[in-house]
Amino acid sequence: MDFSIIQYSKFMTLLAMLLQNLKTLHMSLEESIKWLGEVMAEIGPTHSQKSEDWNIFDVKQANAIIDYLKISLFQHYKLYEFMFYSAREEIVIGTEQVIEVVKSACGPFPNPLEEGISSDIHSTFIEPPTILDTEMKELDQEQGPEESQPETDTSNMDPLAGFNIEDVKSVLDQVTDDILIGIQTEINQKLQIQEEAFNARIEKLKKA
């Protein structure tokens, strides 16, 4: 409507006062319409002998303001009343959870949750034999004493006999590479699935 600065100020004040009357004075729809008419009679067009400086809005502008209030505030008056008067239940859109990591029973060896690796890799390469594995070995020794004799003989031998430091490093490097390759492959598969899902969404948005 190409309002002047004064007209903008009066218009925004009018909107603020209407909402304030609804919120604090609990004016009904009829009371708000009556109040608007009285205010527009003061700041709107007039045929009295007053100076033209008091005529903030002309007839076209006053009608446009009334039409705007009719389709915005007055048409949805019940909705504004509900918003100001009715107590709304607080909706929880988020929650916090605390995950307690159980300390490993293996002493200094970390558990898979702390390391962020799968339980299979942890049990194969990191976790030492459990009590159940020890009991199974003892049971095997009781059932087959003849076969267990070679094992007792070899148990006293150093498992690293015949290997130097370079051989141990080579084995550790190979195991580490196998683990990293498996993790990298899993990450790449997940990234590929996410990329395909994003591409499908983009195509749907383009079609829409």
From TrEMBL:
Stretches the record annotates as Disordered: 138-160
Superkingdom to which the source organism belongs: Eukaryota
Skewed-composition ranges (Acidic residues): 141-150
Pfam families reported for this sequence: CLAMP (PF14769)
UniProt-recorded name of the protein: Ciliary associated calcium binding coiled-coil 1
InterPro entries linked to this entry: CLAMP (IPR032727)
Taxon lineage: Eukaryota, Metazoa, Chordata, Craniata, Vertebrata
